Amino acid sequence: MPAFGIALAYTLVTTYVPVLLNQLSGPAITGILIGGEGVLALIVPVLVGNWSDSLRSRLGGRLPFVLAGSGLAVAALVLLPLGTGSLVFIAVALGGFFIGYFVYYAPYYALYPDLVPEEARGRSQGFQGTLRSAGLLLGLSGGGFLLSLWHPLPFVVGAAAVVATTAGLYAGVRHRVATARSGARVAGGRNGFVIDWQMLRGDRAIRLWAVANACWEGAIAALRTFVVLYFTVGLGFSLHGASAALALVGGAALVAAPVAGKLADRYGPRRVMQVAVWLFALGLAPPLLTTNTYFIAAIVPVAFAAVVLMTLPYAVLMGLLPENREHGAGASLFGLSRGFGVIIGPLLAGGATSALSSVGALSFDDTKGYSSIFAVAMVLLLASTPLLRRIPATGPGQRSGGP
Length: 403
Description:
This protein has one domain: MFS general substrate transporter like domains (Growth Hormone, Chain: A), CATH 1.20.1250.20. It has 16 helices and no strands. It has helices spanning 2-22, 27-41, 44-54, 63-79, 87-115, 121-149, 153-177, 192-202, 204-234, 239-267, 269-283, 286-289, 299-311, 313-320, 327-356, 372-390.
């Protein structure tokens, strides 16, 4: 359930806060502020994920952090639109939301290997991805409409979704988490950064995965941060028109997530992702070449591939981790890798947009530079392909781990 609530809130913040920021700053500053999420992602998930491995409480090690993170995220969501005239206020509230988000999601992700048997991990990620895609769909398609009615409205809706779905998670698993995977707890409260470094240093496959995942996250973050501005500023769409176009992304996502999970259980997540990376990268070419809006139809297969890359990386990592231990460390490593991607994606996209806004090549000048976000995403995706190819295949009966 939280896959829906936290994805809805996160989509509303990362997609529509740039619209608020655009009234106060240019694309470079917007990229820096949204990319600041990545700095927090390098720190918070590592601390929280490993701490949740060793914490003992009547609610287990994960739920206390989930509840604390939800409280902070909800407070930030309510405060965020109140400072629309102040860049500093928005930056502080944005930081509060991202801290709450990372406190929440690292132990939340660690619940999957705690509670889900290995043979169902692909399906579990597919089902989680379906709910996350539903949140993405509503956030992309409804956020612009809600924002046009009243600036605080999308963020209040996001806060309500986080509260409701977290309450559902608490009611559903609180009796199971206290004893689940007791052997998965790490001993002695080792420093989380040391644990993650040891995992990276000791396992080449995990190193390859971490760099590749940073590329995937960077590509998605670059698009997510600036795509509404591409439609509204670059192509002249209204907020309603941009939301309608992005609804195609959410619709494709609802189909892609469960299909990705089933394909991953059958063929292995790495093989499925290899196809998705190429489909995603090649599908980003049309908006670089033209401003004709017919290319919007290409969003559907591109979104399908993008959701595969959002759904399966953690399933790949679960197959590479040592058996039955340090699941919180694995979730924190996922956050660490993601953090690097979230830093580089918006920063590169924001810088490219500013630098190419008046360049006559391709469609840069016609879109005030915003079409460059597709070039940035394409480069990051193509950079990941040789890394993904070298990661050992994981799936039923193909579990990989260790040095």
